[in-house]
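Supplementary Text 2. Reproducibility record for the structural model of the 1360-residue chain.

All settings were left at their defaults, and a single model was retained for analysis rather than an ensemble. We include the record here because the model underlies the residue-level annotations in Supplementary Table 4.
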Amino acid sequence: MFDRLEYENLYMEDETLLPIVIKYSDRDVEIHNSHKDVPFSDYIKQIEGVHDFVVINRGVNEKNNYEEFEIGIEDVECSVKLRINIENNYFFSAKFSSKQILVPEGGDEYIKIKANLIFTQNVGISFWNSNNLIDRLSDISEFLTTCQGLSVPFDDSNLGYKNKKAWEIYAEGMSKLNKEKQTLLPIKSVSSPKKTRSRYGELVTVIEVGLNLPSRKDLFVNSLKELLSRKVESNYSIEFPTENIFTIEFASFHQFGDEFEEKLNDLAEEHCFNLEGGIKYFIKGHVSLKQDNDFDEILTDLESQILDYSEDFRRSGSNFTCYSDDTAKYVVQLIEQSYSEFLAIGSKKPIIATFQNTDNDYSVIIQNLIASGIQERNIRVNKGLIQITSLGKPTNINSEEHDLKFEKCTIKYSLFDNAYNSSDQIDGLDYVAIPNRTGYYEGIVLSMDNFKEKSLNWQRQLKAKYGDKFKGQIFVYSYRKNINIDPLKKLQREVFFSNDNIRISAMRGIATLTPNSYEEYNQLIQQIRENLPSGLSLNVPKYSVEREVKLVYEEEEACKRMFNKIRNGISCLDDIITLKFDGVDFTTRYFNFEFDTQEERNEKIESIYSAFDPFKKVCNVYLDSQDGHTKVVFTRNSKLEDDFQDSFKNFNNEPVKVVDHVLYNEAQDLSELNKIQSQIDDIQSDIDDIKDSMPDYVKDNERIRSERRRLGREKSSLIQEKRDAMGRKYSLQREINTRTREVLHDSPSIGECESRGYDKIIIRLPDGFDRKSYEENPLVKEGEYIFFPMAGSASETARQKFALDRIEGKKWVKDNPPVNKRLTNFLFNPRYAISTKDEDIVLAAKWIKDYGISKSPLNEMQVEAVAKACSAKDVAFIQGPPGTGKTTVIAEIIWKEIHQKSNCRILLTSQNNLAVDNALERLQDARGLRPVRILNTHDKEDAETKDGAQYMIDVIQSWKETPNSSNSENAAAHWMNNVKKSAIANAEYEKYSSVIKPWIDCLDNESKYARDIFADSYQRNVNLFAATCSYCASKDFMQTYNRLYSNGKVSFDVIIMDEASKATLPEMAVPMVNGVKIILIGDHRQLPPILSGEHKKAFDIMDSKDLFEDSYETLKTSHFGVMFKAAQRYVPSIVSTLTTQYRMHEQIMNTINQFYKRDVVGGLQCGIKETMDIPDYNHSGSRYHGLSFDRILTPDDHAIWIDVNTPETNLNPGFKNMGEVDAVEMVIKMLNRAEGYKEYLAAQKKEEDKEIGLITFYSGQRKALFNRKFPETNTYRISAVDKFQGMERNIVIVSTVRSNNTKNIGFARESERINVAFSRAKKLLIVVGNKHLFSQFEDYKESISNMKTIDYRTLKDLLK
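Retained model, structure tokens:
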């Protein structure tokens, strides 16, 4: 970049660097940060301080009308654009860019300097003093003055490959988008016809059609799944917590990297979401207070502490049995002091003593049991109980028969060695450990009623846990000898009935004792024994205090207290986790934490475990993963969503067809095609088999060589068979495509699209719609298809792409290059065009002056323009500001080209029909000129361009066969009339009269003979084609060309393109590829091309978002303007500018002249200055209107501003201002009441000269004006400014619309738009708008200063 020799630093003094001061505001920062990824402050950090700088004068910023400078920094990849405050010695209004700048070629176009860059928000005397810069102010002032004196370099950044690539992608993307739009849309539902208001307030009939499309949510999810399938294999979940948030959570930890993260974000943006905060890594966890599954661990810990005090106790599950009061008291004290937060101790359990007969002789009972089949070895007596053991299965014993009472059954379940797992707990069973042996599970059943249920349930649970490790089961039944209960009843009833510590149960044969101490226990026993009747004894167990220990966390409040204590104890984790209650399980609190690196993750895990260590007795901490999880969060982007919804506006007003699904499916029948494809696949498989089996070549082995030849013949045969199948496939595919096109073409149109959403279409039914007929036979039905033919735009896009492919030299069009092969280069950079010799231009200029067809002499710049255009070899550029005689110049160019080459073929084209027809009208009487007009009769502008129909071949042919009123106005008939006039003039000469008179009679009668001669001769001698750019490669165009020239390859000697500044490069390319020489005529100071509203989507679909961001300014800039400026610099011999305007009064010209002073010294000149005020309506050079109305309007006023302050209305999109509509109506009333207005109207010969032009910047305002009932004494041409370019009217009223307190005038600020709006008037320009608002913008300020200002209220008062 900085490859030139360094100049000596002029701004160094005693080795002290010059300070360059840049002042910035909060507004600068705000604007920058809202549009750039890198913050404003980061740019300052990069470039503040000492650097080597390049300073360039970028000239006037035409959007804002101020001089702009750019500073590039050699050692940092960035630059900054600035303005200069010369009075106060600083730069300001900084706009940073990450792009380096190119150093201009001219030495007077830049300054190189090593300096100290200082950024500040305040520049005053205190700033200069505090930074010791007072002494340097003169140096700084000199430096800034030098910067202002720099020449403005030509900016050729829009030339060359980058520009070419951007337009190619744009055309390719638009082509793809059009194909997408033509997709058939299945109908899901159809509403009944109903009346409603259209977007413009008209009453219309519509139907609402629901589309059977996958939901946008499903499309997003499926796209994500497809993307993720290429990157991850682990499980993940996709959720939509709300309509505006979307998450993907991975079951494991994944690090994707920046590239994949960018792909995720791109995919999200396609579905109107953003990747919020990037990809997040996190771990989930929870803290649970210890519960049943942790209980054994707690009890074991408690048991251990009790053992440290005494061994005089036994633990069974959660029951602690102490055999001394001292131990029992210690247990209570220990739990209350150390475990009270999570354990509670139950009340004492009573001691059960049993009554038994004093007669313990069981011999008779045992004999009876043996007799009943029970083996003697399985029977024993133990502590007054008779026990019967059964191995493997239960035993059925009739206890009443043997005078026994069932006491209990102990069931022991055994396992094979080492199978027991202490973590396996089964409700109701205890594990009994046996030293040095395998223990067993033991359960006790106290009632035979639930014996079977319990025993089977335990058995099933153990088998499920241990499987084949389950060994077997032993049943031990315990019975007691029945006792006489009558004495016990008496004891229960009479002795211990009211005793709280002794409770007798006669039926069960037990006594329940509740002593408070060991001494009291002995006393209670003694009381019972003293009252025992004879024959009974009391069997008492060893004294014990048994209590059950329970967890307290079944109570919510207890849990809350504990978690509050835990939170206080882990405050060191406040920056890492927060414990949260899920509202359900009050014994658990949940948390999660994020991390960026694995090291950070490990540190946080360690901190969590460490913080919770003091609470390990009361709670457990669980992490669901030690590695962590990955989470992606998307949030809906409202701007992208708005853009998505806006994208459907491109369907508005498009014709809609309904396609019969049966006919379409029949046309699309692919069964035969699939069969052929299957055959092709089979043949290819056979070919591959031959390749695999082909033996390697061996020179002297005849057998192998013979086998190779045989396989080669088979392979060749299969290849030919495959080719034949492929031919059948392509033929059938073409047949299917043809059938499908026919079905789509023949499908009925049902109306136009009123509005479109993703899954809904509102269709506006045509005027005169018959509701009754529709309801009897509805065309639109569920199951059918909606189809947008979009024939015009789709064809245009295809033609543009084809032209660019020819220019690019794509393989598929390599046999059809541009007619001028140098077009590939000079279309993007005119320096590659052949320059013209001065002597050739001089000779051409002389011929034009001598033989030109213009009725009035051309001015010098017009002569130069024609001469340069006709002398050029490749391309010529003509800038034609408003009213400078472009059409005259075009006529002269055509006239000169035809005389240079008698069989010359010329194409006259433009971006719009109006410009083409204006040029044809001027050429109407030119001798030797035979134009033909190619006009799309279905074009919406057809009604406005009907004048061109007289040059259509079909019209001429129709007149030739059968003349009538509709075809009599044609070019051949006009030629015949001119010949007739000439013949009549020559008939006065007697020597010619006898010959000419029959000829005149023949022409008078318009005989078939005469019509044939003139129609056929006209067509044989056509030398000028006229068509719009996009229609130049249409089917009609090609057919007409071949019909007239019988030449399949389209080629023109000269292509003249008018209004070239309004054409996009793809539009320009369509005709240009067919020309030897191209003459481009336009004005880059007027409106640039109108891009499709889908230009961004065109780049998106081509996966070129970055290129769009870099090229957007290029795309919306006139390519003609870029080329014109480059040609001015590099090849001036092919460039000319028309500087004298003949359209408008000088006052009107002065409202736009500021734009042309930027290109031409002095700006535009008024060519009618001497005649413009002549009070003669018939004088061609007069712009006299002769109107007077009180103090508002006089014949000397030609530019007036009506000041209106009514607020705008936001239509979203667009704006309107009903106050300005009222003002326009008042202006028209004023004109009608003005003195001289009737005389003015009567003097106008053309209807368009009588029309009042009403121009506005917004379509919403155009509609409002259109709906207002203006006086019928006038006719009106109401249009948005974009549609008015190329037209002119005597009187024009402009409504500016915007009126607000935010200093926002939208695209009304664009100088090109102002220029076109104000330059349409010839005699009288009246602008209606908010003067205070618009005067704040330099371009408007200049325009308003050249207008007479009238307050709207004054106008209203005067009209009253």
